Amino acid sequence: MPELTAGLRADLARLVGADALLTDPADCWPYGYDNSRRQALPQAVVFARDVTQLQALVQFCVRYGVPLIARGLGTGTTGATVPESGGIVLSFERMDQILAITPGDRLARVQPGVTNARLQQAVAEAGFFWAPDPTSAAVCTIGGNLAYNSAGPRAVKYGTPRDNTLGLSAISGAGDWFQTGVLTTKGVVGYDLTRLLIGSEGTLALITEATLKLTPLPEAKRTLRATYADIHAAARAVSAIMAQPVTPCALEIMDSTALEMVSRYAGLDVPAGAGAVLMIEVDGPAACIQDAQRAVGAAAQVAGLLELRLAETAAEVAALWKTRKALSPALRHVAPKKINEDVVVPVSRMGELIEALEQLARDSGIRIVNFGHAGNGNIHVNLLIDPDDPDAVTRAATCLEAVFTLVLRLGGTLSGEHGVGVAKRAFVGRELDPVAVRLMHAIKAQFDPAGILNPGKALPDVLS
Amino acid sequence: MPELTAGLRADLARLVGADALLTDPADCWPYGYDNSRRQALPQAVVFARDVTQLQALVQFCVRYGVPLIARGLGTGTTGATVPESGGIVLSFERMDQILAITPGDRLARVQPGVTNARLQQAVAEAGFFWAPDPTSAAVCTIGGNLAYNSAGPRAVKYGTPRDNTLGLSAISGAGDWFQTGVLTTKGVVGYDLTRLLIGSEGTLALITEATLKLTPLPEAKRTLRATYADIHAAARAVSAIMAQPVTPCALEIMDSTALEMVSRYAGLDVPAGAGAVLMIEVDGPAACIQDAQRAVGAAAQVAGLLELRLAETAAEVAALWKTRKALSPALRHVAPKKINEDVVVPVSRMGELIEALEQLARDSGIRIVNFGHAGNGNIHVNLLIDPDDPDAVTRAATCLEAVFTLVLRLGGTLSGEHGVGVAKRAFVGRELDPVAVRLMHAIKAQFDPAGILNPGKALPDVLS
Q: Domains of chain B, with CATH numbers?
């Protein structure tokens, strides 16, 4: 990585606009981290403005061999936007316009820097929502959601960004601007570059605009909470719920360690002997919502159910969510620097996964808290360690290794919605087919021949 | 294309198995056509059996520069499986096993040669369906559905193959077997090769296995038929239906020319002055179905509505569908060799599209019948001509050119679910971004370096 000399900095200022450039390390530092606790100093930060400016920037980076790392608002958890090999961090925070909302065609056109929450608010006024709703919706951008295919709890019914994006505009690593996809929900002209870019973590192209598929807001929503004696009963209930026709719009699980955490720090209102809790929500037309709630409630009644509570009023809903909402502060209190993974296994293997994780916790002496999006089999595995304790870090590394081995043995995937970034690069070669990895690298070389777009991220090395 | 000498034929027989090889032109001929009325004689036909055999076949084709054209059961409409540059047609009809159905994980694993209808029947026994349901379901294969991303009427609610496929196994044009995707509904490790292969018409790889996402069968279905004074009223109703929360599982349109065809050959039971008909179906839990029907019925009541009929019994449903079902035989009677396009426009532009098509029909003297999947804006435009009349063919070519220009001006796409094949190759360069086309060719070169997989199909030439 070449030094950014005073001469090059002046060139850059001329190309991208002086008001769109930071080069003072003190200014650049806040753009060098994400939520993975990794941090590296960018050589410069550029604020994306428009296609012309971005093309000039890409050409500059190609000429001088400077890495270019696209960044939303830094809520990623895998270091994907951390400039570990140096380079320019490209912040999309100023390209934050909602360009069009077209209710009759169920679509919105947006720039990548708009936050998920602001988009939801704007389309809600027209009676719609965009299905992906990561927990960080208030502060994460659509560009970031597309980069990691981040979905959140609603995905169980409404899908991920790949299922809810119709087309993109982007700039390749050669500086070429191009469009992908269609304005319609059907279309099969040319290869599907839209979904190829989604989930590619800024390694193939810089997304400058997205056409998003909107879904009409449901009229009504109902909440249920089911408490089980053990995780296997809860897992059986998840399978039963997913095998009947009413698909819930949220199906979240908490394991016994999670319940124990909450009980210690916030007081628990679940029955004694609780080994797992499911939070379930259904949505739909107001006239049908009670029947939907009843159908899902019936499916939740498997052997091992200790209590099933149905909420109707806002106060009852809040009471049911209290345990789940208390979990995050409790975790922060005990282990502010916990390791949070987002593995996925087929729904039918979830009980097996969590039981093995509990065994792993006993063997390793590391407390592991599991919760997450059970309807997709997407479990957030939290290792409660102090990363400043070298011994704990070593044990955690061994433990994580075992978690990943377990997930792959169960037919799962190492990331549901957080992506690979730097954090999981060393592991994903064990999941991906080696021929497929070679093809991915070959594709990368076509989109980014100079290798400037987020180098060293997302893809594992090619195995010989 | 080299000649397949007796020596090469003997090599081939040894590699793929003599019982899996046809070389007599009389035997090969039936494998040289599809439903586009194009036909060309394959130099040989091979019946796919397993990965080992297919790898040997690919290596043979690479060594001797022989095109290899994957084929399901020949129901395609664009000539994508017609060996126009010679080569070996690879029929998947014997790789037709349903390998696994896993209700708890909502998935099925299948070989590409199984027909859509047989899969639907098998998964229905477990309480599920696979969303894509092309009209040719009885005789089209899953491999073909994946090759063209073919969906059918249900896509308006349940999506296309790209939305309903979790992973694939495939063999590249270099003879490498690889796996893509996951067994779960979330996953973001590596680039999305699954959806890249779907819709690529056998030009990137040979699909040997697919993991399909299943959806629970709805308990109940209801049918509505809405008749409008003109196409604009019907188009407004489609927009209104798509803007409210109950998404129908079918939303089909017929224009005035379609109604006129039916009235002449089968007798029409719609009110006088009918200019367009919508066939609407809703599905869902039995307890909610009446409300769903009512909600959609209310949305269908826009100015220009002449009649709204709701069916409850099977006999009433059949009566409502009578007009729509009479259309295909009526068309076959009038113009057995009609040209059938499957363009798509944003739902809000559908009225404009059909009005302009009516004007085009008047100007060109060609009768144009429009019907199709209105909820996706996917209109089947039928030019009723006799392709054996040279003058008609010339006028039809001019007319088609105008149809495609119109569709692109309205923000649409030239194919919703039939694909490009040979038939639309000359046109899709006008829709696709030229940089994207260059990238698609670059991707093709990575998957198929020798250029043996279905050469000359799907992608337009690179524009200089």
A: 6-91 (3.30.43.10), 98-216 (3.30.465.10), 220-409 (3.40.462.10)
